Sequence to fold (396 residues):
Amino acid sequence: MQLIEISTRERTVMVDITGEVEQAVTASGIQEGICTVFVPHTTAGVTINENADPSVRRDILNKLAEFVPHNGRYNHTEGNADAHIKSSLMGSSIQVLVKDGRLAFGTWQGIFFCEFDGPRRRKAWVTVLPCK
Amino acid sequence: MQLIEISTRERTVMVDITGEVEQAVTASGIQEGICTVFVPHTTAGVTINENADPSVRRDILNKLAEFVPHNGRYNHTEGNADAHIKSSLMGSSIQVLVKDGRLAFGTWQGIFFCEFDGPRRRKAWVTVLPCK
Amino acid sequence: MQLIEISTRERTVMVDITGEVEQAVTASGIQEGICTVFVPHTTAGVTINENADPSVRRDILNKLAEFVPHNGRYNHTEGNADAHIKSSLMGSSIQVLVKDGRLAFGTWQGIFFCEFDGPRRRKAWVTVLPCK
Fold:
């Protein structure tokens, strides 16, 4: 298990961690298998989406904010109920296949840590399991 | 593969199954790897979220009900189309890393079976894969 | 890693790929483990849901279209911002447990490739990891 540390500067932001995950895969020495990225937070998530145009990330965050407004009416009274709901919608983990010692990705795919209650210091954990 | 059995008493409810999953990890004897929890139902799901304040679960269920009302207009005529849609939004499986023979979790994380068409007798399956 | 090729004929459609995934599991020769299906596209996804009544798929696609309209206002200007958002909501991968050399599924579960920006030629990759 390898640790990625992320410092977020806004309340909601998607941070590209593809390079850090790729390094963890290289460090594992595994040539073929599955890489799992897990986020140990209940007000953050992780997703795979377009790595080229940053406006895609803004559209995702805007749509989530429209669906789950920060200042909506919630039972949870810590002011971050929206962040918990977004966390379950995006999910706490992603998987990517590993081939020839690298992430087997589509051309436009990147891995994004989703901060929904920042700014904070956050973590993501990476594990690679071999095929055989 | 180990079996967890869940009896739900309401139409929609999130049931904390963290303890049962932890037991399955212990029983596997695996020290480092990945634990997968899979739900073999199309009107239920599984998610990871806050284990402390139960109001977080109510907020998640309320928001899903607002988005996908039980009595909305659907093509599927069995009266549980909302449950099928919620199932795909939450997902049928979660992964948690395993370290030192235990779930490697964040402080506030728990695993929740999401019942969307209860009350019913339900199952979840747990498998642990070793790192090496 | 095994390749599934999918040709979609509509802009949005859910294509049942359960049979192809089952074949990949058989070809792997693995008796017990976990099967991962990964979609290397940022305007498509993969989900598990009911395999019997096709109206369930229509309800899922209709609800996603209501939430994320094709012609809504987005920052991304390629005309497929909705498809990117839906991709993150459904997810890029699914896991199914493998037992006795077959997918360990619920009776009504199928695996569906989710096209959100077709028609296109698409891919899904399948990997099976053994339990021991």
Observations:
- Chain C has a mean pLDDT of 97.
